């Protein structure tokens, strides 16, 4: 695992890892200038942009890792109007979790630190966020349903 001087340096490294992986998978990546946006990276799909807040963890708890999805200490609160996805990277396991923001905002409350279990689960289907492990496909927009026109059969 790389050594970092502070959490800001680690956050910059994790964002770079996310960007590299997204590019490798064929996504078009946008990076806002500075730290004034509530998201770290955006993915451009032409008619839609997916805003992603990138987080990381190496904090092991029992058989998993706790990943904090709260804002930093600057008092800014995340909202569903600001973000589409959280990307959580479990550094020791080199594993990404691509979680829709709506799945973390429980009743509109600020997201907290869910447990992520990138190792083999003790009981299959017993962990809430495993369906989002390496779920890069979720970042792409769903195809729009075409409305039938007169003359269509």
Question: What would you say this structure looks like, in words?
Answer:
- It is a single chain.
- The chain is of the alpha+beta class.
- The chain has one domain: Trna Endonuclease, Chain: A, domain 1 (3-Layer(aba) Sandwich), CATH 3.40.1350.10.
- Helices cover 14% and strands 23% of the residues.
- It is built from two helices and eight strands; from the N terminus they run αβββββββαβ.
- It has helices spanning 7-24, 101-104; strands at 28-30, 41-44, 49-57, 60-61, 64-66, 85-90, 95-100, 115-116.
- A five-stranded mixed beta sheet has the order 1-2-3-6-7.
- Strand 6 and strand 7 form a beta hairpin.
- The model has no long low-confidence stretch (mean pLDDT 85).
